[in-house]
Amino acid sequence: MADEQQPHGAICEVCGQDMLNSKGCLATIIIDGVEYQRIPMGADDDFYGGEEMADVKRCGDCAAWRGHCHHWGCDCERCPICGGQLLSCDCGEEFEFK
Ligand SMILES: [Zn+2]
Ligand SMILES: [Zn+2]
Ligand SMILES: [Zn+2]
Hints:
Bound molecules: zinc ion
Number of domains: 1
Largest sheet: 3 strands, antiparallel
Order of helices and strands: EEE
Number of helices: 0
Shape: globular
Mean pLDDT: 93
Strand order of the largest sheet: 2-1-3
Distance between the termini: 28 Å
């Protein structure tokens, strides 16, 4: 495996796609049994929302394209419940995707 490592070319464990070579991740997250729409890269509530980020085409962390969802584990994905960083908030314990 070690010889296949790339800085940002990881396989997303949720969608199974190579992050660099895909548009983005699955759009729905199920948090403790409740379905939510994930916040896409570049949405108003997203880390990349707002005018100063309008020129950024892809997420610098997970490489999702504007308008598509961040791959799982991305530092920039927002929580659809609290609006905070999904990785570090306490809104859920079990996550599923579809
Ligand atoms: Zn993904
Ligand atoms: Zn991202
Ligand atoms: Zn949250």
